[in-house]
Design a protein that fits this description.
Blueprint (H helix, E strand, L loop, with lengths): L26 H8 L74 H12 L1 H15 L19 H13 L1 H6 L1 E5 L3 E6 L9 E6 L26 E3 L7 H16 L8 E6 L10 H12 L6 E7 L1 E2 L6 E4 L2 E4 L1 E10 L13 H14 L11 H12 L5 H9 L4 H14 L2 H6 L2 E9 L9 E10 L5 H18 L2 E5 L2 E3 L7 E7 L19 H14 L8 E4 L2 E3 L15 E4 L17 E3 H19 L2
Helix pairs in contact: 2-15, 3-6, 6-15, 8-13, 9-10, 10-11, 14-15
GO cellular component, one term: fungal-type vacuole lumen
Protein name: Peptidase M20 dimerisation domain-containing protein
Keywords: Hydrolase, Membrane, Metal-binding, Protease, Transmembrane, Transmembrane helix, Zinc
């Protein structure tokens, strides 16, 4: 796992972090030129919403007329918090607790301006809406029980979708090198002019969550109609994730049409089963990409993820790309006992014993923690530093918790008391989601099992979860005189006359460790992403806020990026959208994308490509 960023770096710290983005021939000269310049680190925030859409946080210092994205872009204003502050800072001031970069506009200002004008035109918007509508009309549903590609005809619809993309983006298909991986996953290589620069990987997924047939009549417009009603584009996938996929392709097509050739190469990769196992799409793509570009072969990755919001005051926009993801483990608890007629029962049946074990697990949840080097603590610093409406008691605790262990414990308790979602943010969660046992009312159950879903904290591990379950359940197994196997290990418990309990990985999966934490220094690629987000928001028509804060956060769910850890240390999960940009959320009835928000996604991807392309 990558080392977490420092909260308070020394004033004389230096950084050459951006040099990996420069040609090899320039690294030494740039390093010497900037040696001695102060390093400012971006403090990290943390997700307040579930799954992939945790939108958040704080207000940022932004700068007019900022030039090019290399080291000079990442300067910060004079720090205002040499001592802990208990008042919110205005977004025009910077802070060592939550440092910021300014808006980063592409050096190709004329091209950027021309494209903004194009994207504002009625003709362009009509075409863009039609492209997303057409994509939504192809029901690329992803099922949990899909067999591998080639063994299940339900994959065939992805061929129709691939054909639609080729017909819709002729310039892109004639300019980029296009490859199909495992038949339907797509890879597009846009060759840059400078091979010494590592490419950037932009990802999305083709598949959507199936529509429950019983809910079809609950939709305002049919789920695969793609209706544009003048405000919304309706249908499954309009938000998750075809809006990102189509806006990426529109951005590239538009840049090609304007004659733009990037300095660095770009790779677009689209999975086909992100909503289920990810094995047929991102699993195959990860192998292909590492074989083609090598380990650590990309400068950065941008995938779907968090967005922006006005969480702690309407005058400040808080944008929150995910820079890490929680781990994942489904663990099965199975109790096996002798059968028999229920007229002569033992004191405890297999179901009763399993119930005691479930009760014990729920009585002993994982203890939440708030380490200072972790994302939740750094996120809290951003909330407290810039949130105008952040609770004053928590703001004061956050300031003192930087140095006081007692205040840190009070802050942890205060956060959980303020909102129970913080318990999920600050620790490993466990939820007993599946249970079964018994086949007939007059027969003693010979088997009973439950599956416990875990989302593993950033600072924890799969092994920690296994050990926790063993420590909680071993005394109960001993009490019931059960033998016990824990994840392939025989553990001494009772003599076993009453039966046996097995702890195992459900579904044959050994779980997923928490992701590496993406570096968030201002001179890291994070600074480029943050500056691009600010430039897109502050230059949007109708922008009327006091400022924008960009702060990293922890995703509670997982994306296709969980397969891509070998490709780069710099993985970002961000969808340029606000909660109001979707009509009714995701994975439910009446999924719809606000048409204007779709245009803003196109603007964001265009600026991001231009900024990361520049030398």
């Amino acid at each position: 796992m990558s080392e977490a960023p420092l909260l308070f770096p020394p004033d004389d710290s230096n950084s050459d972090d951006l040099l990996f983005l420069l040609p090899k021939s320039r690294k030494d000269s740039v390093a010497n030129q900037h040696r001695g310049s102060r390093l400012r680190w971006v403090a990290v925030i943390f997700s307040l919403s579930l799954a992939l859409l945790a939108y958040h946080i704080l207000a940022a210092a932004w700068f007019e007329g900022l030039p090019h994205w290399h080291i000079s872009c990442c300067r910060s204003t004079t720090a205002s918090d040499r001592r802990p502050s208990t008042r919110p800072l205005p977004p025009s001031e910077n802070s060592t607790a939550c440092p910021q970069v300014g808006p980063l506009f592409p050096k190709h200002r004329g091209l950027d301006s021309d494209l903004d004008d194009l994207y504002a035109s009625g003709a362009f918007r009509s075409t863009a809406y039609d492209l997303l509508s057409g994509a939504v009309q192809i029901p690329t549903e992803s099922y949990d029980d899909l067999l591998p590609v080639g063994e299940d005809t339900r994959w065939n619809i992805f061929g129709v979708f691939n054909d639609y993309l080729e017909q819709s983006f002729p310039l892109l298909y004639s300019t980029l090198n296009v490859a199909k991986v495992n038949t339907y996953a797509m890879v597009y290589h846009w060759q840059g002019s400078d091979d010494s620069l590592l490419p950037v990987l932009l990802t999305a997924h083709e598949d959507v969550v199936p529509v429950e047939p019983a809910t079809v009549d609950d939709w305002i417009h049919p789920p695969y109609s793609g209706v544009y009603d003048g405000t919304w584009i309706w249908g499954r996938g309009s938000c998750d994730d075809k809006s990102s996929l189509i806006s990426l392709l529109i951005s590239v097509e538009s840049l090609i049409e304007k004659g733009f050739t990037p300095s660095r190469s770009f790779v677009l990769a689209f999975g086909i089963d992100e909503e289920s196992a990810g094995t047929q799409g991102a699993g195959h793509l990860a192998v292909y990409l590492e074989q083609t570009y090598g380990k650590d072969g990309f400068a950065m990755i941008l995938d779907e993820g968090g967005g922006y919001n006005t969480l702690y005051g309407g005058d400040v926009i808080f944008a929150a790309p995910d820079t890490s993801e929680k781990g994942y483990l489904d663990a099965r608890v199975e109790v096996s006992t002798p059968g028999g007629h229920s007229s002569v029962p033992p004191p405890h049946t297999a179901i009763g014993m399993l119930s005691s074990m479930i009760t014990a697990l729920e009585a002993h949840p994982h203890e939440p923690q708030l380490p200072r080097e972790g994302t939740p603590f750094l996120a809290t610093q951003c909330f407290a530093t810039y949130g105008p409406d952040y609770p004053e008691d928590l703001r004061q605790l956050a300031a003192h918790a930087r140095t006081s262990d007692a205040a840190l414990e009070e802050l942890k308790a205060g956060l959980i008391a303020a909102d129970t979602v913080y318990a999920a943010m600050l620790g490993t969660t466990q939820a007993v989601d599946l249970i079964k046992g018994g086949v007939k009312v007059n027969a003693l159950p010979e088997r009973a099992d439950a599956v416990v879903n875990h989302r593993i904290a950033e600072y924890s591990s799969v092994e920690d979860v296994q050990q926790h379950m063993l420590e909680v359940l071993l005394p109960i197994a001993t009490e019931f005189n059960l033998t016990l196997d824990a994840f392939g290990r025989n553990i001494s418990a009772g003599v076993g006359s009453a039966g046996h309990v097995t702890l195992s990985f459900a579904w044959g999966s050994s779980g997923l460790e928490p992701s590496p934490v993406t570096p968030t220094g201002l001179n890291d690629p994070f600074g480029i992403l943050a500056g691009t987000i600010k430039a897109t928001l502050t230059s949007a028509e109708g922008y009327d806020k006091k400022g924008v804060i960009v702060t990293p956060m922890l995703a509670l769910g997982n994306t296709d990026t969980s397969r891509y850890w070998n490709l780069t240390r710099h993985i970002f999960r961000y969808a340029h959208e606000a909660p109001g940009d979707s009509y009714n959320g995701l994975h439910t009835v009446n999924e719809a994308r606000l048409a204007e928000a779709f245009i803003q996604q196109i603007r964001f991807y265009t600026k991001f490509i231009l900024n990361t392309s520049d030398e």
